[in-house]
Specification:
The protein is α/β, with parallel strands linked by helices. It has 14 helices and 13 strands. It has two domains: about 190 residues, Rossmann fold (3-Layer(aba) Sandwich), CATH 3.40.50; about 70 residues, 2-Layer Sandwich (Alpha-Beta Plaits), CATH 3.30.70. The strands form two sheets. Strands 5-6-4-3-2-1-11-12-13 form a nine-stranded mixed β-sheet, sandwiched between helices. α7 runs parallel beside α14 and α10 packs antiparallel against α11. The radius of gyration is 21 Å and the shape is globular. The structure holds magnesium ion (MG). Its cofactor is a divalent metal cation. This is Trehalose 6-phosphate phosphatase.
Length: about 375
């Protein structure tokens, strides 16, 4: 991602800068003290005085917001003729050569999975549920829930979502799974003594069913700051019709899918203005959502690695991890699997886009078919 501001505001390029400390948390940032941090920052870093909207218009904020929200579905409505439809289909079919359908290629995947232990990782929004106007209503269908339940009985399965862990659990409602919320910054996984020893933020806990689990929250020190930023963003965007700020515990999402496109720069400016006071936070783009999260060296890819280790499945030749997701944040997980030459990333997309995934699925209904095929294959 290439969000760059032309001043010293804490809107950082993605991926996040890698820090030297164990979890990437700058030691000077902890414990959280905004006043102390801001004072030292003001002394050490010159700041440009910001004019209204100067920052977001002169940077690539809006370009990134638009590219995160491709209007491909509208093309067929605007050009309602065979030629336009054929062009879109041709583009998608060409793209499928590079990212083959995981359904059409299922036999190949199944052959590769023979004698291996599959570990399944699933994003939630846009993968198991449709993207809807109101993020509070992103419900999965009963058929999808049944498919996820069945597949989780066959293979260890985890949901890794940008939502808070509690919220994604409320949507999915299955106890058979592991859940990682806040882009992997809030994980409940199986108990492993070695994991707890490796990660100081990993503690023994019990889940809602009283089962002993490992609770891993690498950004726990940032919680008071995130709460403060959430409140500031709610206040600063309250007059923008359609804007919605969502508290996802260790990150904050600012949804603009219901905001008139001519006001997207106002949304961007509000977020930029709030973030200027928080160099410890960074911004990433999802599908019609700006996401604010701590600057720590942790993402969905690291969450996959952590969960594989928790499950006792890391460094094993006979393990085949499969990660299914639709978002830019899922690319971190695709990258981990691709670079580790272990398993497959599967991108859910109905429009051509570059990805680190190996295979593709068009939409959640194809995800369900794929999950059912995995169960049948088992
Ligand atoms: Mg998603």
């Amino acid at each position: 991602m290439d969000l760059k501001s032309n001043h010293t505001a804490p809107v950082l390029t993605d991926p996040a800068p890698i820090n030297k400390s164990r979890l990437g948390v700058h030691s000077g940032m902890l414990p959280y003290s905004r006043a102390a941090y801001s004072a030292s920052l003001l002394l050490s870093i010159p700041r440009k005085k910001t004019g209204i909207l100067d920052d977001v218009r002169s940077s690539s904020w809006l370009d990134a917001m638009k590219s995160s929200s491709p209007p491909h579905k509208k093309i067929t409505k605007v050009f309602n003729n065979d030629y336009a439809l054929s062009d879109a289909d041709d583009a998608y079919n060409t793209w499928l050569v590079k990212y083959p359908s995981a359904i059409a290629s299922f036999e190949q995947i199944a052959n590769h999975a023979k004698g291996k232990r599959i570990a399944l990782f699933l994003d939630y929004d846009g993968t198991l549920s449709p993207i809807v106007d109101n993020p509070d209503c992103a419900f999965m269908t009963d058929a999808m829930r049944a498919a996820v339940k069945k597949v989780a009985k066959c293979f260890p399965t985890a949901i890794i979502s940008g939502r808070s862990r509690d919220k994604v659990y409320d949507f999915v409602g299955l106890t058979e799974l592991y859940y990682a919320g806040s882009h992997g910054m809030d994980i409940i996984g199986p108990v492993r003594q070695s994991i707890s020893g490796d990660h100081p933020n990993c503690i023994r806990s019990t889940d809602d069913q009283g089962k002993e689990v490992n609770l891993f929250q690498p950004a726990s020190e940032f919680l008071p700051m995130i709460v403060e930023v959430f409140r500031s963003l709610v206040e600063s965007t309250k007059d923008i019709i359609g804007a919605k700020v969502e508290d996802n515990k260790f990150c904050v999402s600012v949804h603009y899918r219901n905001v008139d496109e001519k006001n997207w720069d106002v949304v961007a400016q509000c977020v930029n203005d709030v973030l200027k006071d928080y160099p410890q936070l960074r911004l990433t783009h999802g599908r019609k959502v700006l996401e604010v999260r701590p600057v720590i060296d942790w993402d969905k890819g690291k969450a996959v690695t952590f969960l594989l280790k928790s499950l006792g499945l890391s460094d094993c030749d006979d393990v085949l991890p499969i990660y299914v997701g639709d978002d830019r944040t899922d690319e971190d997980a695709f990258k981990v699997l691709r670079e580790g030459n272990q398993g497959y990333g599967i991108l859910v997309s109905s429009a051509p886009k570059e990805s680190k995934a190996v295979y593709s699925l068009r939409d959640p209904s194809e995800v369900m078919k794929f999950l059912n095929s995995l169960v049948a294959c088992k």
